[in-house]
What we know:
CATH architecture of the largest domain: Orthogonal Bundle
Low-confidence stretches: 165-182, 205-228
Largest sheet: 3 strands, antiparallel
CATH class of the largest domain: Mainly Alpha
Order of helices and strands: HEHHEEHHHHEEHHEE
Distance between the termini: 122 Å
Number of helices: 9
Number of domains: 2
Strand order of the largest sheet: 1-3-2
Number of strands: 7
Amino acid sequence: MDATDVELRVLGCLIEKQRTTPDTYPLSLNSLRLACNQSTNRDPVVSYDEEQIRVALAGLSRKGWARLASGRGTRVVKYRHLFDEALGLSHAQCSLLAVLMLRGPQTPGELKQRTDRLHPFSSLHEVDDVLEALVERELVARLPRRPGQKETRYRHLLGGEGAATDEDEGEGETAAPGGRLADLEARLERVEEQLESVLAALGSAPPDALAVDADEVAVVGSNGVTAEPAADDVEPAVDGDEDVVPRTSEDPV
């Protein structure tokens, strides 16, 4: 299968709108443009113009997957898909492929929930059975499980980005731990840089900023904390054991 991304988006929209809004189906070029570019139930969200969609419709017509559906005398050109008829798909198979076209790789649980308006599957087991049938026809492939993921994801093999090789997908899966390691290394490097900045700031601080003035030295006394006088204000100590007699005003100088 070699369909382009635009062709697959257009085809997926035709199938979806046929099932969900049958009153407005087939679709005009403008309706197709709006359906392709809507922001809900689409991955990725795109912004195609009418010329891109017209080219995609021509490609789908050459594959036998879509055609004009305008009747005689109609003023607006409309289009319908022939996908299920061209590939001999059941209603359930066509619905699953449409959602895979519109939203990319998904798990069976996601597919069951997202195809509810197109085809109501009775159980998850039924979804698995239909997926297995599509795998056997090489229209769908299983993807390796992501780290920590319990369910297997599936993708279509119709073309575009959805038809990436298993090797490419495997490389993307195994690259995830390396990406997390690189992130941790970057965070560690930032922490080290911050620590070095703090240490550099402390090491470059002027000596006076870290010195303590003698006048500000506090000593713990019996009555609490008192400031110790500066060294210059302390009278010299008296040597020996001589008694110090207080001097009076009558003593000669």
